[in-house]
Amino acid sequence: MFEGILMYVIGGAVIGILARFFKPGADPVGWIMTIVLGALGAAAGGYIAQMLNVTNRALVWVIAILAAIVLLFLWEAVRGKKPRAV
Predict the structure, then answer these.
(1) Are 38 and 15 within 8 A, CB to CB?
(2) Residue 80 region, left (φ>0) first, then alpha (ψ -120 to 50), else beta?
(3) How far apart are the C-alpha atoms of 41 and 69, rounded to whole Å?
(4) pLDDT at 83
(5) Are 29 and 22 in contact (CB under 8 A)?
(6) Are 49 and 60 in contact, with CB atoms under 8 Å apart?
(7) pTM for the whole structure
């Protein structure tokens, strides 16, 4: 059980970092929120991939990263911060 949780944290961190890298503009999000949004993005992306019958692991990762990017935009909207221009 601990190994599963640890893998979600590590996977969430990787996906969150990649999402922040690909999302335009500066994100004043801390590392804990990066992991949380990455893990939520991974869960949402995995769910979406399963609904679409996607079996390619690389494509599942892409969907998870895109879901995390969407969550970053939503997080900015909820916090009321305007995205900065590049």
Answers:
(1) yes
(2) left
(3) 8
(4) 56
(5) no
(6) yes
(7) 0.75
Lowest mean pLDDT among 22-26, 30-34, 38-42: 22-26
* pLDDT for the residue numbered 31: 79
pLDDT of residue 43: 86
- 35 with 85: CB under 8 angstroms? no
The two three-digit tokens of residue 25, written as one number: 């503009």
Helix (H, G, I), strand (E, B) or coil at 71: helix
Structure tokens at 59: 């494509």
